[in-house]
């Protein structure tokens, strides 16, 4: 199986160029030109991790080529629209740090400064959390924690003053507002203004527990627990992470170890076992166990989920392999005229695709954790 997965990853890299990656199904679907984006960013992070584990330079070489394609000598980033204030655009910046470490190119450090300045100007809620985007005022999404906070932690550790207070404050606020006391799960979005049609008028929360949103938050916590090198801050992140993984584990499908698109409604008509969020949970659990934050049993839980992905979501055609059952995208609020109301019916209505990096990248990350124990 490992050889087949290796060939699959090799094929994805070999068929991609810095401006046209085969794992970015949104760009392929819409016929757009390549640009600086979080989807590629997820895959670059995974490739860098796999390269570091296996010693295969081709993965890190390609990731660096992508970064080099967009980053100019003065540290500006081609196609980055700073005035849009999209947290998603920060995620690809994670690849700047290993690229800088590998090559010593000063432009990568300058590009990290560019993204840091962008976050310095990011609109915030009254409590200090980043808005998800300027077009989504007063809104905090779980996705945004992953998009911005690991980058900020890396920046503080490598180029800053190792001041993690703002990161901790934002994570605390997410837990305070977005965690459901009954289930321990987190809602996808929170509208401080309570004005959006998807928001509960009393709590400001969206309606459902979307798997990938919880997955984004889970891997953000797992990565922050590894990046942050200040003991007290790391311990607080670890507590929140441990609490979440304990809650999420209760909703795994007993037969496969996979998780449902709408997490707490397994078996309901239209719901399905979704691979991107399942990959994220598998990675987070195995990594948490490796770091000593989670009990050893979580490594086995994560591995069972990974094996379920291999059994249920991978397809083989000779040497060709594909990862299926990936929700292409889901959000809150209008998108191109489509209302996204955060209902159960909405989450199960979004397109399901194969080989998109929102699923492939966390699958590769989970694969790295499996390989560490092989």
Task: Provide an overview of this structure.
This protein is mainly alpha-helical. It has one domain: Glycosyltransferase (Alpha/alpha barrel), CATH 1.50.10.10. 51% of the residues lie in helices and 5% in strands. The protein contains 14 helices and six strands. It has helices spanning 2-14, 25-30, 38-54, 57-70, 96-103, 106-120, 142-158, 165-178, 211-227, 231-249, 275-290, 297-312, 344-347, 357-372; strands at 139-141, 189-191, 314-317, 320-323, 326-327, 352-353. The strands form three sheets. The chain has a two-stranded antiparallel ribbon with strand order 1-2. The protein has a two-stranded antiparallel sheet with strand order 3-4. The longest helix has 19 residues, at 231-249. The mean pLDDT is 96.
């Amino acid at each position: 199986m490992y050889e087949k997965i290796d060939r699959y990853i090799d094929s994805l890299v070999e068929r991609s160029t810095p401006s046209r990656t085969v794992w970015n199904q949104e760009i392929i679907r819409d016929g757009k030109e390549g640009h600086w984006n979080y989807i590629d960013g997820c895959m670059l992070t995974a490739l860098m991790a796999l390269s570091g584990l296996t010693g295969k330079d081709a993965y890190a070489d390609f990731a660096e080529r992508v970064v080099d394609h967009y980053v100019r000598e003065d540290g500006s980033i081609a196609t980055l629209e700073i005035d849009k204030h999209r947290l998603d655009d920060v995620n690809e910046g994670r690849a700047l740090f290993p690229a800088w470490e590998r090559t010593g190119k000063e432009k990568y450090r300058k590009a990290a400064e560019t993204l840091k300045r962008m976050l310095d100007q990011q609109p915030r809620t009254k409590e200090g959390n980043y808005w998800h985007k300027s077009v989504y005022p007063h809104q905090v999404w779980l996705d945004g924690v992953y998009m911005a906070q690991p980058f900020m932690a890396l920046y503080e550790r490598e180029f800053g003053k190792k001041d993690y207070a703002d990161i901790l404050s934002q994570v605390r606020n997410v837990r305070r507002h977005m965690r459901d006391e009954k289930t321990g799960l987190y809602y996808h979005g929170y509208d401080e203004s309570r004005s959006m049609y998807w928001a509960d008028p009393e709590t400001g929360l969206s309606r459902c527990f979307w798997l990938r949103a919880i997955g984004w938050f889970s891997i953000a916590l797992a990565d922050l627990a590894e990046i942050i090198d200040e003991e007290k801050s790391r311990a607080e992140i670890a507590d929140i992470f441990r609490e979440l993984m304990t809650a999420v584990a209760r909703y795994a499908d007993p037969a496969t170890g996979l998780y449902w698109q709408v997490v707490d409604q397994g078996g309901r008509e239209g719901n399905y076992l979704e691979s991107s969020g399942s990959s994220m949970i598998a990675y987070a659990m195995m990594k948490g166990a490796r770091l000593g934050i989670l009990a050893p049993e979580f490594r086995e839980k994560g591995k069972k989920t990974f094996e379920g992905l291999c059994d249920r979501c991978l397809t083989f055609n000779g040497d060709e392999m594909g990862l299926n059952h990936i929700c292409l995208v889901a959000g809150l609020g209008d998108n191109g005229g489509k209302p996204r109301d955060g209902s159960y019916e909405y989450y199960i209505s979004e397109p399901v695709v194969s080989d998109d990096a929102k699923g492939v990248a966390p699958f590769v990350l989970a694969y790295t954790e499996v390989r560490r124990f092989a």
